[in-house]
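Let's do one together. I've listed all components of the complex below, 280 residues spread over two lines.
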Amino acid sequence: MSLAVGDRAPDFELRDTGGDSHALPAPREAPATVLVWTCNHCPYALAWHERIQAVARDFSEHGVVFLQVNSNDAGRYPVDSPDAMRARVQAGEFASPYLHDETQAVARAYGALKTPDVFVFDADLRLAYRGAPDADYEDEALGAAWLRGALDAVLAGRSPDPAETDPVGCGVKWRE
Amino acid sequence: MDAPRIEFFWWAECPSWERALALLRDRLAAAGLDPESVVITEITTDEQAADLGFPGSPTIRVNGADVQEPLEDATGLSCRIYRTRDGRVSPLPDVADIDQALAP
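Okay, and this is what the predicted structure of the assembly comes out as:
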């Protein structure tokens, strides 16, 4: 079951491609926290990738915590293996930590469905926006407008509009 | 001259298939071909994907030839990655590749 707007972010601890551990910030520690489910093999995730990285870079100066998570079953999709994730990070393709959710427990706790699937939390770690980065994976000019708008709203103390959109992309590849 | 055989293969978990089919039919009409002549096949199992050499959804073939060579040799239930002519990654083939494949 997916989180609903207003739900608190489930706690987790995941390692990035360099072996460092990451968890949610404490409440009020960061003005906003973003989790993006993504992966290496999905054309939708790849089509939106640069737009998402631009948001991560632009909002880092505001203290926003930005984490990207790959929960796909690397046994079925080897291109989503930790080594392949590390190679992309080392190639400079990620503007924030890229976390491996090997057990898929975090994806299940959040109800992540697609790649990409965007979750924006406010300073109290309450879900403020969930869905797609913007309205069209084919239109780079949209610039992840829904994600940017959600962060602008949260940083200004407002509720995002829209607060929910349908995530569009490849389904998370669950273990069989 | 016989009309080309146009085949469209799709997997339901990749949402671009409807857009791709509409795009294909649009380009068929633009080329003076029957948009309803497309032979549509839904791929539902890895075995079917292997049998048909399905590299991912959507896949379009004209007289058996893919409108863009697959980036990988693998077959299976997955969403296909295309490279557009301007270098972007897309879940859809480039319009120019479709037009080129349909050209007499």
